[in-house]
Write a structure and sequence with these properties.
Strand order of the largest sheet: 2-1-5-4-3
Number of strands: 12
Strand content: 15-25%
CATH superfamily of the largest domain: Histidine kinase-like ATPase, C-terminal domain
Helix content: 40-55%
Shape: elongated
Length: 457
């Protein structure tokens, strides 16, 4: 179901429920007000009748016979009954000539007190019974009648409420349609704007409106997502461009070498030298392909949550680096660990991936530094593992630092060094996948320092 229809239905249900509650409130209290008004009239009539018949005439037959029915009876279906203190019927008058003397009043004799009359219904006829004392005697008077005028008013009120609710329902439907359309108008505009954004027009942005309400916040969030997508597409485009360039160069070299060897190499030793050159270029292609696969694996795979002795990982990476660079000094230093830690320098993750990350940092430090390299592993004040790898190389500029983790980017001082610019991007992905951070600082002419912060196990 469309959101517009849902909003309309919820709005109609809510408002119409409130309307029905208000109608029920008016109807109930109108019923109560009519009953109280008519019973008050019956009570006044009973007091007037008791004062006239019992107080003045003393229920003498010769005096009662002089009273005409139309002088006493003023309501529809009215009946007046007076009972002696012993419960016998002393007087009764009714608008209906053939109405028999009622015996049902006796049921309420015991319920009537001086302060509490009896009120009950007999169909459409409403009856009030009250007590009247005269010369120390207790008389009971019952006055019954039908509130014809009040019921006609009440029927009119019911018709007004019914018609008003039907008319209100029509207005509620119109209001629901209007407000749903007005509320969803910014969303409809946003949908139209989003439909116009394609992969070739990611620079477009959605109108953010007043930047305060929920729709504006949705537009701002969507624009942030578009910015991220634009950056990702640009990075992907640059990555593909650089990777194609890096692959095309050695492949073109291999092709040229083999074509030259086939056309001009006169003897086997010369052809062997050409083949060795081709093998070297093919090995570069293989190394680049493996690095690209490692970057994809670091981006897509979540590391296993196994316990890893990170100090062993660092020592194995240092040993590999010393083997790769035999004349380079690599100094290792371990800081103190808290007394509460049973196994020092432990973390959770994939040991092979962490070894790759540390080895990439050490390889860069040894590759671009003629002096020694310092490695320090310790706990920081937040209880995290803190690995610092410091070299004494030429350093990097601020512009180079900003792009250092872009795939296939290489600084000016690395043009004459082997590599493809994938080591740091792979390391950053591995560290982030383990819930850590990679920070690199550098000063031109002094060296570079790489810091890895990982959660301790």
């Amino acid at each position: 179901m469309l959101l517009r229809n849902q909003l309309m239905l919820w709005f109609m249900a809510l408002v119409f429920t409130i309307q029905l509650c208000l109608t029920a409130f008016i109807y109930y209290y109108s019923v109560r007000a009519r009953e109280l008004r008519f019973y008050h009239r019956l009570e006044s009539k009973a007091e007037q009748t008791a004062h006239l018949l019992i107080g003045r005439l003393d229920l003498k037959p010769e005096d009662l016979s002089s009273l005409r029915k139309k002088d006493l009876l003023t309501m529809h279906n009215e009946r007046i009954s007076i009972y002696e203190p012993d419960g016998t019927l002393a007087f009764q008058i009714s608008q209906k000539k053939k109405e028999a003397i009622s015996k049902a009043d006796s049921v309420y004799f015991d319920q009537i007190t001086r302060s509490q009359p009896a009120r009950f219904h007999r169909g459409a006829v409403e009856v009030l019974g009250m007590q009247y004392r005269h010369k120390g005697q207790r008389y009971l008077i019952f006055v019954a009648g039908r509130d014809a005028f009040g019921r006609r008013e009440f029927a009119t009120l019911r018709a007004i409420l019914l018609g008003g609710n039907l008319g209100a329902l029509v207005l509620i439907i119109g209001a629901a349609w209007f407000f749903a359309g007005r509320l969803l108008r910014p969303l409809a505009r946003m949908v139209a704007e989003v439909r116009g954004i394609t992969a070739s027009s990611l620079r477009q942005r959605v109108n953010e409106g007043n930047r305060r309400d929920e729709v504006a916040q949705l537009a701002m969030t969507f624009n942030e997502m578009l910015s991220g997508l634009e950056q990702t597409f640009e990075a992907h485009k640059n990555f593909v461009s650089h990777a194609s360039h890096e692959l095309r160069t050695p492949l073109a070299t291999v092709l040229g070498t083999l074509e030259t060897a086939a056309a001009y190499d006169p003897d086997l030793p010369t052809a062997r030298r050409s083949m060795e050159s081709a093998v070297e270029e093919i090995q570069k292609v293989i190394d680049l392909t493996n690095s690209l696969l490692a970057l994809a694996r670091a981006e897509g795979a979540a590391p296993e949550a196994n316990f890893v002795p990170f100090d062993d990982v660092v020592l194995r990476a240092v040993a590999s680096c010393r083997t790769r660079y035999p004349g380079r000094t690599v100094q290792v230093d371990f800081g103190q660990w808290p007394d509460a830690v049973e196994i020092p320098f432990g973390t959770r993750g994939n040991e092979q991936l962490l070894h790759t990350a540390v080895l990439n940092l050490l390889d860069n430090a040894c590759k671009y530094s003629a002096g020694g390299v310092t490695v320090r592993l310790e706990y920081n004040p937040a209880g995290q593992l803190w690995l610092r790898i410091t070299d004494t190389g030429a350093g990097l500029t601020a512009a180079e630092l900003a792009r250092l983790t872009e795939p296939l980017f290489r600084g000016e001082n690395s043009r004459d060094r082997p590599g493809f610019g994938l080591g740091l991007p792979i390391t950053q992905k591995i560290v982030q996948a383990h819930g850590g951070q990679l920070r690199i600082t550098s000063v031109v002419g002094e060296g570079t320092q790489a810091e890895v912060v990982l959660p301790a196990a």
